[in-house]
Amino acid sequence: MILELLAGASVGAGILLIVLALRRPVPGVAATLSRLDRQRRPRRSLTASAAGVELDGRLDRVRTTLGERLEAEAGARGWQLMRTREDLEVMNRSMSTHLGTKALLALGAFVWLPVALKLSGLVGGLGVPVVLALAAAVFAFFLPDLALHGEAEKRRRDFRHVTGAFLDLVAMNLAGGRGLPEALMAASSFGDHWAMVRMRQALSNARIMGWTPWEGIARLGRDLGVEELRDLASALALAGDEGARIRMSLMARAESMRRKEMVDVEGAAGESSQSMLMAQLLMCVAFLVFLAYPAVSQLG
């Protein structure tokens, strides 16, 4: 009876997914405006570190086509996926490639696991492999999101570290007599680190579009999900061109960011020390059990 229920539930879920995939919803105003805004953004070429190892050409085309279809469906239904978009923006990857990878991994896990279990002889019935295959497909579908978020958080920490140095450079340029827009652009011209390059691109785009530099910084912070950039843009917008006051404010903000980074590093070091201490305690307990086992076994 359980197998029949599982089979019926699987068939029903499959039919529901097919109907949802084929149904063309009427997009709302917010979804339409979001799609048009994404289309207006220039496409960036992926760097070698962001692109990774190239797959086979045919598989890559299938992944891209499937990802574009999934992205269009998500946009038509008004699914913003803001956290994923922010992480992809940090990693300089496209949404279509990410969604295509998720779909292919889920399909591969769903097909591979039942075959592997059948060939290994671990299970004999059909219901258990189907349930395990569905669980594996769900896990494989969300696995790229977890990996992406971890990598994006590391790059955000790197970006915050560079932002502190950027603020010091801006303060030095202001002390040299430059105005705030010129100081921001000059500070972003130092070095070819990816964070400096993104900052320089944001300031250049703001100048081309007729925005203020701090508005360009705020948009970059919103795209990357970096709160410090949005706070910096708000401070710059309030200060304007008040030279000495804004210079002292930037130096204080850079010092605050460095202290926060130092606290984060000390916290991570403390967690590592606690993990090592727990591992040592477990080794001591295991050694004591190893020593006491012969004597305890003789008592029985």
Automatic annotation (TrEMBL):
Q: Which residues form the Type II secretion system protein GspF domain?
A: 166-291
Pfam families for this protein = T2SSF (PF00482)
Q: Where are the transmembrane segments?
A: 6-22, 103-120, 126-148, 277-296
Its membrane topology: Multi-pass membrane protein
Q: Name one GO cellular component term.
A: plasma membrane
Q: Where in the cell is it found?
A: Cell membrane
Keyword GTP-binding recorded:
no
User: What's in the keyword line of the UniProt record?
Assistant: Cell membrane, Membrane, Transmembrane, Transmembrane helix
Predominant subcellular localization, coarse grouping = membrane
UniProt xrefs under InterPro entries: T2SS_GspF_dom (IPR018076)
**Domain of life here?**
Bacteria
| Entry protein name | Type II secretion system protein
* Organism listed in the record: Aeromicrobium endophyticum
